[in-house]
Structure formats: C-alpha cells, structure tokens
Amino acid sequence: MGNKMRAARFLAILLLLVAIIAAALYLIRLPLAGWAVRSAMAGAGLEQPQATVTALTFDGIRLEKVSSGAEAREAFQFHVIEVDYHWRQLLSAQKVAAVRAGPGLLRVNISDGGQVSIPGLASGGEGSGGAELPFQSLILSSIRLHAETSAGSAVGELSAEFEKETGGRAEIELESNNFGLKELTIPAGKINAELELAESGSTALVFAFKGDMLAQGVAANNVSLAIDGEGVNWRDLIEGERNTVAGNAHISFSAPQILFGSAQNQETLNQLAPIELAFGQSVSEAALEGEFDVNFSDSVFEVRLRESAPVTLAAPDGTGLTIAQSGAAPLYALRGERETASFQFAIKSAGVNAAGSADIERENDRWRVAAPITVEQYSSPELSLDDSQIEFSGVLNGDDLTADLALKSGLRRAQIGRLSVSDAPFTSAFRAEGNLSAQTVNIYNREECITFERGQLRLEEQNAEASLGRTQLCNADGPLLVFTWAGDMVCSLNGEISSANGRFSLGETSASGRPPNIRFNAVYNPLDSRTTIEGIATGGDVTLNEMIDLSAMIGRFDFSLDPAVMRASGVVDRVRAEQSAELKFITPVIADGTFELEGKDTTFQYSLMTPAGNALGVGTGRHDMSTASGETTFTFQDLRFEPEGLQPNELAPGLKGIVSAATGGADGAVRFGWSKEGITSGANFDLNDISFDGPTLAVTRTTGVNGSVTLNNLLPVSTEGVQTLTLNIVDAGALELTNGEVSFEFPGNDTLQLKRGEFPWFGGTIGAYEATASFSGAATIPLRAENIHLEQVLDFASVEGLSGEGVLSGSLPLVFEDGKARIENGVFRSNGPGAIRYTGPAADAASAAGENAQVAFDFLRDLRYKSLEVTVNGALDGQLDFGLRFEGTGDLTVRNQSVQNVPVLYRINLTVENMDLIRQANLLRSIELKVQEELSGRGAN
Question: Can you give the pLDDT at residue 582?
Fold first, then answer.
C-alpha cells in the first residue's frame, strides 16, 4: 500500500510543480519557460528531465514531450500534459482546477524483495504533500504501464477520470509476460481492475485475473480469480477525515488444473513432500476452488468461508482435501495484534480417510494451536495407520515451544530410514519442549511407558527381522526423543525396551524367546542414513538357532548402521548357556566374553565356568549371520576334579549317576561347527590320573585312568579310530581288576566297541575282547579269564589253613542294566589236575561235630582233583550263586586205618549274600555245612 501511495503522490507533486513554475514564469514567457520547468524537475529528483512548454497563460499551461530517465528507458513519458488553474489560487493554495495527461508511458520496477521503485527518480526526490488532492479534476488517458521484474514484465493500460464533486472511475488492464514476484511467476495472464467512486461517496472495486501461475514447482493453469468489494466513503479519505480503509469483498477462485512437481529438482520435491504425506501418495494433478467473504474495518480483518462453498482440492482419481468453516468462528481474523484461524478439514484418497479441525491463535509473538484428528485409514510409502486418534495442542512463545500430543495409533507400518515397523498398535501421550533458535525439540513420554501389544520389525538390505509380543518402551533419564536441526538434522531416542517374547532373525541366524531388557541411546541422522546405538542388556531367556538356550544376560554393546555396512561390538559380563535339546550332552555353563560384528561376519571370544563358579577354560569362534554357519574351539588346561569341587557330571549330564567323587585332571579342546546342514563336533582329551566312583553302581571305584582320547563327534559320540587308556584299579566288589589297559572305539551308532580290555588276574589274565555294548538298554560284555592260579585265588581269600594249586580258565559274561552289573552263566574249569588242602582250625574241630564231618575234612586235608568246575551267577553288588564240582582222590582214615587214593566227587551249591564274605571266615563255615550235607548222602560219591 505504501509503494502505491508513494507513486500516486509523486504524480500529483509533479503536476503541481509544473503548474507553479508555469504561473511564476508567465512574464518571462516561452523562451525561458522550458528551461525553468526542466530545472524544477531536476530539483524534484527526476533524472535527465525533458519537457517543452508549448502554451503558457495565467489560466493554464501545456507541456509536451515530458519525460524522465535515459532515452528508450524513460521512467515516464507524456506526450501532452495540460493544467488549468486560477493563478491567484495556485499561488496561495497550491491547487489547480484540472489536470489532463496522455497519451503516455509509466514504468515501475519491482525487486525480488517486493520493493517498488520508479527509474529516473533519485532517492529523496519524492517531495512532500498531504492527503488532500491538489486538483479538482484529473483525466489520464491512454497511459501505457510497464511493471518489470527480474523474471519478466506485465504490460497494460491505465485510464482514469475523476471529478472531486461527482466522483469518477479508473480502469487498469495488464497482461503478463513471465511476470515474477518472489516464488510466484505468471507465465501468461490478464488482469482487469475497475475502481468506481460514486457521487454518493461509495467505493466499489471489481478485480479479475485469468491465466496461469507457477510457484515452487506447482503449475496452475486457467486460473480464475474474482474480487467484488465495497470500501468506505472515498470523500472522507480525500478530505482527510479518515486515514484507514474499511469495507467488504467477495472473493472466488478456481484452478481447474494444478500440476504438481512440474520442476523436477530436489528442492521442489522436498517442498512437495507435505502434499504426498497428507494424501499418502503423490498427487500429480488436481483442481482447486473456493469462495471467501472478507470484511475489514479500522480494527478488524475477517475472512469467512461460505457454508455451501468450502475450499476443495480434488484430483481426477478422487483424492481430495476439503476445508470448511468451523462453527461461528471466522476462517481467519485479525483484531489488532491478535490473529486467529479456525477450520475443519477432511482428507480422502485411495489409502487415506481422515478428518479433524484446527484452532490457531497468534498474539504478539505467542502462537497457540489445537488440532484433534481422527484417522480411519492412512496409507503412504512411509506410514500406514488404522483407527487412530490424535489430540495435539501446543504453544509457541517467541522461540519457545511447548506441545502435548495424545495418540491412539493403530500402526500398521512405519518406515524410518531402512527400518520398517509393522502391526504395532499402541496408545500413549507425549510432551514436547523446544527452542526454535536453538533448533532443538525434546519429547517426553508423559506416561511411564509406551505399550505395544505386538510388533514386526524389518531392516531392509540386511535380511534382519524381528517379531515381538507385548513390548514396552519406557522412559530413561532425560527426554525420550530429541530432534535437532542445527546443521544436519539428528534424531536421538533414549529409553528402555522390554518384550514378553519375540523371534529374531539375521540371515539364517535366528533366536526366539524372551529378549533381554535393553537400556539404550540411539541416534539417527537422516542425511547420511546412519544409525548408532549404545546399550546395556540384562536378563532374557532366548534360544539361539534352536540349539543353545541363553538366559540371565548382563552385557553392553555398540551398534552402527550406514548404507554400506552394519557393525556391532559388545562385552558380555555374564550369560547362562545350555543346550536346548531334551537330551543334553553338555551341562549349563556361565560365559563371559566379547564379540565383533562386521557386516554379517561375527567373531567372538569367551571364557566358561560352571554355575557353581568353577573355571573351565576359554574359547574363540566366528559366525556368519547370512548362512547361520560358524565354528568355535574351547580349550582347557589342567582341569582339576575334586570331590567337593568340579565333577565330570557338571560338564556332561550323561555322566550323572555313572561316575562321582572324581579326582585328577584333564587337558584338551572341544570343537563345534554349525550350519543349515547340522552340527559338527569333536574333542581331544588328555586324562591325568583320574579316579572316580563308578562307572554306575556296578563298579565301586575306578582309579588311575591315564591316556588320550580323540573324538571326531560328540553327538552321537564317535572316536577317531581305536583309543587306548590305562587303568590302575577297577574295583567291582566281587571283581577287582588292577593295572589294566583298555582299547576301545565309539563308532557313532550309540555303541561302545571294546577291542581289548585286559587286566592281570591271579597269575593269569582277565579281559574282554571284541565286545560291543549299546548305550541304550542292557549290555553284555563277556569277560574271559585265562590261566588263573588257584593258589593265588586262595591266598586272596586268606582263609587260615586253606591252600591249593592248579590252573583255571573260563568266562564271566557281565550284563550291565540300569547302572548295575551281574554275572550270567559264568564258569571256570581247571586246565588240568590240581589240589585243594585245608588244615585249619575247622578241621581240628570237625571230629567233635561227628563222624561225617571228620571224614569230610579228612578228604580236604589233601584233595587231589583231576577236574574242577565252578559256575557263577548273580549281581556283583549282591547275592552270588556258586556251583562247585570236584572230581578226584583223597586220603581217608577209617578206624585208625589209612586208606589212600579214595575216589571223591563233590557237588556243592553255595549262595553268598555278599562277596565280601569271601574274605571272611564265614565262607569256610558255609563250605563246611555244604560238605556235611554232601557226605550225608545227598551229593558225594
């Protein structure tokens, strides 16, 4: 308004100046009049002024070829200017009766900042003047207008007639040729404006524009804009009684074809992003139309929508935006320093159905916004919602922002960089606090936690996915979310996340169960698509690749993701690890260690201990996330077994109930490999003087086990060929074996192949050869005894007065079942003749027991057998049944007569409740009773 008033005032001052000069120079007449006019124009600030006075009287002046500015670029140029005046009134009141100008040219320049200037008018040359008009009538005819900008120009014609007593009218016609102002360009268009000043004083304006517009990549074709308005009494304005405007207007507009994104550059695409965000899709073409009623006065400016004519933006495919009046409140109002806006809106497209309202208020530097929004459906490439409610209210006071957001979201999908989140409904409320000059906004969760009933996550280009059950994102220290845009925009998220259950996968690597609680600080930089996370993990109970259960974790990690690679590193202070299989061949262990992830390759180091705190050893390994394949080697040195400390069953659950109370040490290494095809494993052990109770209940104790074992698989167990161990003692109660050597093989079919297990025994050997025992069910190992010396057996029995000689051989089939061992159909036979002699206390006392007992013990004083057979049946840790058969000769004294070489045949069945009785005198008493029974006629010949 100021620039327009300044230009009009300039024209009035110019005309008045010419008239005054003309009157003053009347006596000098024409020869000096032209010079005087040009000098006066230069003094008024006009550059290179030109004027010729062709007529001069006390009643008027006629100027021809009046111009200012360089040739061909004049600021203005009038062919004729005629001024009528009464010279006395001119000199006293500086007023003229009439001004008639035209035809002519008027040129104005409009800068990119919107400043209007007249070329050829020096700074400060505008002169001064009041609001009162210096003329009674004005006629401008055929005035050519040129409005020029850096982009182009608008050219048209101005005509005006005005009479101070009766009013008048003015008309402007302009046609654009790429006329541009700031971001708006009018490639082609026509403007018609008519101003009517009625004799009654009323003011009427009719304005019309038709043409094309272009702004920030959006092209509007065939735009139609019409303004029909009324203003205040024009007489009050020119008479100085009113210095503001007031009135009303009706504005209607129509743009049947708006093309979005016509300029394909990044800046334009960024500017069009809100359109795509609002409609959930790109909009290439739409039509816009609407009507407004405007009322303005000294203190109020209001814009209202007609109830029957909301503003609509409609695309050919049905996509549309409607903005409607919100109750009785105006669409926009300015009252003094207070601005308000209030409206309802609805958005519809193929994927969007949303509605809401907005109330906006500004007073001084304080803004207030309230906007409830209902989203029945929303779908865009970045975000999809169902049945969502948004309640937003905020205050911007200067640069300080405070806002509250209540959100009930049926989140179907959200894309954040390369991370997509789907099927994650939640309800929460947030508080935002920020400072625009500091370019920072902090967002706090007004409740303690955000609860997601479920959720799916996927990391694009990494083949990483997660499926979560009930999940909570809780506050940590400070704000939950921080946005900064001082320089690059950065978003940081700080909190603690926990889930009831979930499943995770990276390539072929997967984990399922309850993930650990993670306290984290995540930073996302959209410009370079980089995400970094620092976190602390605690708890959890997950199964890794359906093989290893990990629980009770304590650790920390760093993670980074950019368009090139994913990286992570971490320290695990503690985690419990055990096999997830129902049948476990490794007991639970406690691990700590470190790991490094580069792309999809992971390397790790760790140390293991038992849950009781016994150190086991250290290991290293690697894992390929994409193929779920990898390997690890665990080594241990001088692993010590103590009765009150580490025991073998703490390492291998299968040994529980088989061995116990172990002592000694071991060195070795265990290797595991894994892939989609399965698990490979192996181990090598060096056993150093290991002793233990067992194995099973069949053996009381095994001591002094030494040697090396190499396994090429742990499940099922298989050895790398035949393995050999030495043993000091195998004490099976009834069967004690010492200083033996065992060669065996595990072929990998749940059996043990005993190639050779041999011990020295009573001057001969006892052992098993080429025997096979199954790990499941009963197992039979046939022991074979060779060249057993009876003399050493009887020495072992240590019965006073009992001796003998001879050599025995036989077999003892051992059957192992339910952790116990028994002999089935064991038999020993003499390799040749031998003798048994008993001259102990029981023989001396036999005569007192009767004649039969005396006879029996007479034979036993020197029983020379030619064959001897012993059968054995029963449990090694319980009752044993012996069957003895002697056939031979002995000496007998009958009635003081000695009878030599009397044939004797003994058959004795003997039950021993416990083999410990062998080493007790009770054995002899049992034999004595059996001998008496036999000699009484039930078994002796």
Answer: 63
